[in-house]
Amino acid sequence: MFEQVKETYAELGVDVEKALEVMASTPISLHCWQGDDVGGFEGSGGELGSGLAVTGNYLGKARTISELQKDLEQVLSLLPGTHRLNLHAIYGDFGGQKVDRDEIEVKHFQGWIDWCKAQGIGMDFNPSCFSHEKAADGLTLSSADEGIREFWIKHCQASRKIAAAIGEQLGSACVTNVWVPDGMKDLPADRLGFRQRLAASLDTVFGEKLNPAHNIDAVECKLFGIGSESFVVGSHEFYMGYAMKNQTALCLDAGHFHPTEGIADKISSVLMYVPELLLHVSRGVRWDSDHVVLFDDQTQAIMQELVRCDALSRTHIGLDFFDASINRIAAWVIGTRAAQKSLLLALLEPREKLRAAEQAGDFTSRLMLQEVNKALPWSVVWNEFCNRNNTPTDWQALSVIKEYELAELSVRC
Ligand SMILES: C[C@H](O)[C@H](O)[C@@H](O)C(=O)CO
Ligand SMILES: [Mn+2]
To answer: What residues does Mn(2+) bind to (predicted)?
Structure first.
């Protein structure tokens, strides 16, 4: 059947083998925080805060680094292709000691680096500027309190040093994404002041020039959060301007805009002015609810734009969702596979024929071809991709996950 499908696509000018090659060389950066509900392992007992919220209480949350690594290994075994780990600073191995955010060092993450090396994957990193007493009032790098700003600047500077070591040791640039929750529940008096302080703090954070082969800086914008409904200092306009001016990567999170505003249409514009893009593929339901990513129109549109803009080499595809209402392994596998399937669908699009019709002003054929594309047998190619990587098909993966739940997750009390 697969050979016939290849011929069907070839008639429309689509090279299926080329699409499978690109799939195999396009990693998805797996966010560690889905495994334990964004808790981390500092052992400080701190509550999740700063506008982040996880709902659900499904059994088997990872409680230790080794449990999280075991869960991630299970996930990786069920994903076709080679991926990356996206780690937050709060997941370091602090040996039960109190290590504050401004004191973190490479040694606290060496275990993770070694684990990634053993898995044959790259690693991305994030300073954790949330769920901490010095972020309790919702302000960090833009705070009017210089001591607070200094603390978070030091944390971000330390994070970049760690990221550069990660990138150097693993031989793959580590994307360091800076997201701060800074904002106001109600109407601020001096928006400009907050934004000037954030820009000055970021300039200090990024002041040390690091080898881009080891570390890529990204900044993440947001529209609102819990506790920052009226004002977010790091808005899209702020960070797009900052990224353009300083040529950092810009992180677009699919849940960080108005509920009806997708990020697909932003990709071609952003990539005209910033060097690289980091995506947090997510799914907001009513708000930035961080639902598990699905194979839906929004996700398909994002990947379609990446392929149409020939932007995969300048884009780092990360995921950002945290759902504790279902098996967390399944959440990762469903979400990652949805992102991958959306990418495959985009790679199999007869885009040369679409482009030709559009350039000829033949919008009728363009529309019809877009509809024809939806009915093409892309899932046969997806199953071939799974087979070639010795991974089960979607439905088969569920039974493997259920067995893991019984053997491993259900005994974590
Ligand atoms: C844990 C992540 O840093 C966080 O989800 C951030 O990326 C975000 O999207 C906050 O809304
Ligand atoms: Mn995000």
So the answer is: 256, 288, 290
Q: Is residue 355 part of a domain?
A: no
Model confidence pLDDT, tens digit, residues 33-66? 999 999 999 987 667 888 888 999 999 999 999 9
Distance 13 CA to ligand 2 centre (A): 36
pLDDT, average across residues 219-237: 97
Instruction: Answer yes or no: pTM beyond 0.90.
Output: yes
Query: Is 265 marked as a binding-site residue?
Result: no
Q: Which ligand is nearest to the CA of 88?
A: 1
pLDDT in tens, 366-411: 999 999 999 999 999 999 999 999 999 999 999 999 999 999 999 9
Q: What is the mean pLDDT of the chain?
A: 97
Provide the 8-state DSSP code for 85.
E
Q: Domain for residue 381, yes or no?
A: no
* Cα 236 to middle of ligand 1, angstroms: 14
Q: Identify whether 299 is part of a domain.
A: yes
Q: Is 197 exposed, middle or buried (0-12, 13-18, 19+ CB in 10 A)?
A: buried
CA–CA separation, 171 and 290 (whole Å): 31
Torsion of CA 209, 211, 215, 220, to 10 degrees: 40
Kindly name the residue from 220, 276, 394, 405 that is annotated as catalytic: 220
In a domain, 369, yes or no: no
Q: What is the CATH number of the domain that holds 325?
A: 3.20.20.150
Say what the ipTM of the complex is. 0.99
Instruction: Tally the domains of the chain.
Output: 1
**Is the per-residue pLDDT at 305 higher than 90?**
yes
Mutation probe of ligand 1 site: the residue of 54, 280, 319 with most atoms within 8 A of C-beta: 280
88 alpha-carbon distance from chain centroid: 12
pLDDT of res. 287: 93
Exposed, middle or buried, 48 (CB in 10 Å: 0-12/13-18/19+)?
Answer: middle
The model's confidence at residue 413, banded by pLDDT at 50, 70 and 90, is: confident
d(CA 343, CA 163): 27
Which residue, judged by its Cα, is nearest atom 8 of ligand 1?
179
Indicate if ligand 1 lies below 6 Å from the C-beta of 253. yes
Neighbour count for residue 162 (Cβ, 10 Å): 27
Q: What is the pLDDT of residues 173-207, one digit of tens each?
A: 999 999 999 999 999 999 999 999 999 999 999 99
